[in-house]
Amino acid sequence: MKVGSLTSVPIREVWKDEARDLTPWLADNPGLLADVLGLELELEGQEVSVGPFSADLLLRDVSTGQLVVVENMINPTDHDHLGKVITYAAGLEAHHVVLLAERFRPEHRSALTWLNMISGDDYSFFGISLEVWRIADSAPAPRLRVEVQPDDWARTVRSTAGSGPTDRQMLYREFWATVLPEIHTAYPGWSRASKPQKQPWMNFPAGRSGLAFVGAFARQDKESVLRAELYIDTGSQEENKELFDELQAKGQLIEEAIGEELSWERLDDRRASRVALYCPVAAAVTDRELWPEIRPWLVEALGRMRDSFGPYL
Fold first, then answer.
1. Alpha helices (runs of H) in the chain, residue ranges in sequence order
2. Which residues contact 243 (CB under 8 A, 6 or more apart)?
3. What's the rounded Cα separation, in Å, for the pair 231 and 213?
4. Sequence-separated contacts (24+) of 214-218 with Cβ below 8 Å
5. How far apart are CA 219 and CA 49, in angstroms?
6. Where are the domains of the chain?
7. Over the stretch 21-54, which tens digit does the pLDDT of each residue have?
8. Is residue 269 pLDDT above 70, yes or no?
9. 264 has pLDDT over 80
10. What angle do CA 126, 26, 121 make, to 5 degrees?
11. What would the DSSP string read from start to end of 21-47?
């Protein structure tokens, strides 16, 4: 077998200009950042206005709804871009901050590490280096490498000292940590999410901005319930209700495909709408003994909803 050698390619040979070349390429390929960050990302916009300035990229974590701001550069890191990405994150109220560069200077790596150390559990700072490689005369292949990321172990230690998630939030995180591997196994490629959340819900992509398939613990008629749902929230109440009505008009076909009746919840007093399946076993996340029963139901129900709604989304 003939084996080739990897050759490093200067990234400026591939992307001549940050704004005209690199930023649009990253916007067209959010999956690359999603893979390296372990988040399920969708693009919100590029060159997003922040007062008189503009952030290179703004993405949203589908699993949590949290914003991710990205500042990218072709050169090694500098004070200018580090200051910009912090300013943009503050203006956009982003939870995750990404500085992407060809190479990280030690002082900027230390600054991002320090920001992670002093930040709460919901806020993260990432340093990502962009490399390009080629084998012989092959096309250049990009590679993103994590230079700086939150120290989850240290955060866990701080949490036990009383500054982190509550006991119930830790239970949610533990439950979703058991659900995610089953989702990945049952439906390969559906979600890139790898970090379990501390909220009572977990989102999965619906293939359309403003819509998500969601597993959620909730209260209904004073009873704890677990549901699988299609959650509709584009940011516009009028658009949400129109989408809901369009789907409900096809409700018979969707329910035939899913194999049971759905709960159509237009929620006229709220901005969002939902369509849901409810677990036949009433359970809260604190009912740990029921997890082996409710977890497979949720995974299977989310898959059926995805398959049934997919053709209409």
1. 23-28, 30-37, 79-92, 106-118, 152-158, 167-186, 237-249, 251-258, 291-309
2. 211, 232, 234, 273
3. 6
4. 214/274, 215/176, 215/179, 215/298, 215/302, 217/172, 217/283, 217/284, 217/285
5. 39
6. 6-157, 165-312
7. 999 999 999 888 988 888 888 899 999 999 899 9
8. yes
9. yes
10. 25
11. IIHHHHHH-HHHHHHHHT--EEEEEEE
Instruction: Quick: pLDDT tens for 216-261.
Output: 999 888 789 999 999 999 888 999 999 999 999 999 999 999 999 9
Q: What is the pLDDT of residues 57-81, one digit of tens each?
A: 999 988 778 899 999 999 999 999 9
Please give the pLDDT value at position 153.
44
CATH of 6-157, one of 3.40.50.300, 3.40.630.30, 3.40.50.620, 3.40.1350.10: 3.40.1350.10
CA distance 94 to 72: 16
> What's the pLDDT at 198?
84
Alpha-carbon distance of 160 to 177, in angstroms, equals: 19
Measured between alpha carbons, how far is 199 from 179 in angstroms, rounded to an integer? 14
Q: Give the span between the Cα atoms of 60 and 43, in whole angstroms.
A: 6
pLDDT at 165 over 70: no
Its pTM stands at 0.66
- Label residues 28-63 b or e (16+ Cβ within 10 Å = b): eebebbbebbebbbbbbebebebeeeebbbbbbbbb
Tokens 């989310």 belong to 302
Contact 16, 22 (CB under 8 A): no
Question: In whole numbers, what is the pLDDT of the chain averaged over residues?
Answer: 90
Tell the burial category of 184 from Cβ atoms under 10 Å away from its Cβ (0-12, 13-18, 19+). middle
